[in-house]
């Protein structure tokens, strides 16, 4: 007698084994809830991920990108964009509310959630106390699709307002390529020199691309 294994539905699998057990396809199916005529929700989720290439690309896509996806109307598009925005706000709240020290992993997750989908270059600063706990984070400068003008004195002014002991710099590359430019390295050196006068440490500068990042600290540039 042959034994036939029936795949579990995402919700049933989650309740039995935990949310971490779900694949990307199953997680997406959990939010989509229903399939289309002639296709199960798992089939729809699998085809969508194949078409867009990744969850990140899928959740950051515009409405026009979904026109060729059969069965995905405005309602499901709104659901998908809502998931992405909820994740962004989750990391925002987590960064401010958790009492533990800021870790490199948490920093990257937060900055990717805030900057990866931006269409213009945004320069952010995270201000920390002497135990590397978050005091404040802010978007100080915004620019065009390929550049942003940064003023080190403004960064120092924000740090002094909250008596910060250290800062983490970050900006995005809307092109998707996170490799720092010569200008990125030059402005980092200027900010470091400016902060040194007030004994404020620059811990890192992260450049955020699409699904990738570059850390100046990891490169040994800071």
Automatic annotation (TrEMBL):
Pfam families: RadC, UPF0758_N
A single MF term (Gene Ontology): metallopeptidase activity
Biological process, per Gene Ontology: proteolysis
Keywords, ordered alphabetically: Hydrolase, Metal-binding, Metalloprotease, Protease, Zinc
Claim: Zinc-finger is one of the keywords in the record: no
MPN domain: residues covered: 100-222
Family of the protein in this entry: Belongs to the UPF0758 family. YicR subfamily.
HAMAP family linked to this entry: UPF0758_YicR
PANTHER family with a match to the protein in the record: DNA REPAIR PROTEIN RADC, UPF0758 PROTEIN YEES-RELATED
Name of the protein in its database record: UPF0758 protein SAMN02927897_02364
Organism: Kosakonia sacchari
């Amino acid at each position: 007698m042959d034994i036939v294994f029936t795949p579990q539905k995402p919700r049933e699998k989650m309740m039995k084994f935990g949310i971490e057990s779900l694949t990307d396809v199953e997680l997406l199916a959990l939010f989509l809830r229903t399939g289309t005529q002639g296709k199960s929700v798992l089939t729809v989720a699998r085809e969508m991920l194949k078409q867009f290439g990744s969850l990140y690309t899928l959740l950051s896509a515009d409405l026009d990108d979904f026109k060729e996806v059969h069965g995905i109307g405005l309602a499901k598009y709104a659901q998908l964009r809502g998931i992405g925005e909820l994740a962004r706000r989750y990391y925002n709240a987590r960064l401010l509310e958790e009492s533990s020290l800021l870790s490199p992993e948490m920093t990257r997750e937060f900055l990717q959630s805030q900057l990866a989908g931006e269409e213009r270059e945004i320069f952010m600063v995270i201000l920390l106390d002497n135990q590397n706990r978050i005091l404040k984070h802010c978007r100080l400068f915004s620019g065009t699709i390929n550049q942003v003008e940064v003023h080190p004195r403004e960064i120092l002014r924000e740090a002094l307002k909250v008596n910060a002991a250290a800062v983490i710099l970050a900006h995005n590359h809307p092109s998707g390529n996170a490799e720092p430019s010569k200008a990125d390295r030059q402005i980092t050196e200027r900010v470091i020199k400016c902060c040194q006068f007030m004994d404020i440490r620059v811990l890192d500068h992260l450049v955020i691309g699409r699904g990738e990042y570059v850390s100046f600290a990891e490169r040994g540039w800071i």
